[in-house]
Amino acid sequence: MSRFWSPIVHKLEPYVPGEQPKVANLVKLNTNENPYGPSPKVLEAIKAETSDKLRLYPDPNATQLKQAIADYHSVDTAQIFVGNGSDEVLAHIFHALFQHEAPLLFPDITYSFYPVYCKLYQIDYQTVPLTDELAINLDDYQQRNSGIIFPNPNAPTGRLLALFEIEALLQVNTDSVVVVDEAYIDFGGESAITLVKKYPNLLVTQTLSKSRSLAALRIGFAVGHPELIEALTRVKDSFNSYPLDSLAINAAVASFEDQDYFKKTCDKVIASRDELIKELHALGFDVLPSAANFIFVTHLNHDAEELASGLRQEGIIVRHFKQDRISQYLRITIGRDDENQQLLAIMDTLVD
After folding, report:
1. Separation between Cα atoms, residue 230 and residue 78, nearest integer Å
2. Does residue 322 share a domain with residue 230?
3. In this structure, are strands 316-317 and 319-320 parallel, antiparallel, or unpaired?
4. Which domain holds residue 283?
5. What's the CA gap between 318 and 307, in Å, rounded?
6. Contact between 94 and 205 (Cβ < 8 Å)
7. What is the Cα–Cα distance from 95 to 81, expressed in whole angstroms?
């Protein structure tokens, strides 16, 4: 049937998400899901919305959710855009803001959806190499561009940029949009949302999939100048006027209302991450500094793919990337303490 395809479809290489196995009793440490479920208040909100009202369309503007986000981040609702997961939000950003003559800039090792969006929307792009320490150096982005995007913390490395580094880039890069993709910011970083009012070309994206344990509901948002938000809204309303259903909207609002639960679970993940790093160091692993809910590790004496295979045989799955420069690294999601201990026990036998 490919003869019926539009020409561009032949050129697309779709993003490949992390494996979602259908095998029971696996310790799943490969897709950076939160090991702790959502707030009980979220579950109550979903149940309350499950009624005869499901016959009605949801609020196309997600007004309640925008207000909850605005209150939490001390911004105006006109500065907020919401979408069906941060992936959809990012897709609209690429479409609305990056289709210009100069190349879009992003790291050579980063979220692998970025080049997929570029090919889908036929955006010229240029990758900027990470340093030898696999860190983003924002000085390298001071060149001609149609936009700049990078995750903070970066994925899959987990390394964090300080807010002053991002602001230094914004001070010199004033003629194009800078997008900071903060999917993991709640696990140890400081959000660049605090800079949005000062820099009209800054757009910050976040997701409720990770720190708020709502990956199944697909909720993402962006915060920026109202002119940037209007561009995203124009694209959204030309694509899908109802990206968030009423269950997702109410669940997201409830999540922002339960800050105690949010902080408690984030703190637990951070504590578990720090302990896991210490234990893996003791086993001879090199672990990159991480401010995310995952770590990026390598072992001088053992092949990463073989380690991943050995873990899988024992019922634990982690993420192995075959990309140049990182083929000897594993990305390991932070699990519950008992899951992390299972991982360590098996790693001990594999590197013995």
Report:
1. 9
2. no
3. unpaired
4. 15-37+260-350
5. 10
6. no
7. 15
pLDDT in tens, 285-294: 999 999 999 9
pTM: 0.95
Final residue of a structural domain among 231, 257, 283: 257
Residues 283 and 226 placed together within one structural domain of the fold: no
* Contact assessment for residue 41 and residue 254, using Cβ atoms and an 8 Å cutoff: yes
Any idea which residue has 């941060």 for tokens? 86
Interval 56-65: pLDDT, tens: 999 999 999 9
CA 22 → CA 14, 19, 28, distances in Å? 22, 9, 11
The 10 Å Cβ neighbour count of residue 337 is 14
Please tell me the distance from the alpha carbon of residue 223 to that of residue 75, in angstroms, as a whole number. Answer: 8
CA 171 to chain CA centroid, Å, is 25
User: Please, what is the end-to-end C-alpha distance for the chain in angstroms?
Assistant: 52
Q: Phi and psi dihedrals of 19, rounded to 5?
A: -60, 135
By the 8 A CB rule, do 56 and 318 touch? no
List the alpha helices (DSSP H) in 173-244: 226-237
Structure tokens, 213: 């344990």
Cα 260-292-96 angle, rounded to 5 deg: 95
Residues 6+ apart with CB under 8 A from 139: none
Report d(CA 123, CA 104) in Å as an integer.
7
d(CA 120, CA 88): 13
What is the share, in percent, of the chain residues with pLDDT greater than 90?
92
Q: How many domains does the chain have?
A: 2
- Closest among 78, 117, 74, 115 to 96, alpha carbons compared: 117
Of 257, 273, 288, the position where a domain reaches its end is 257
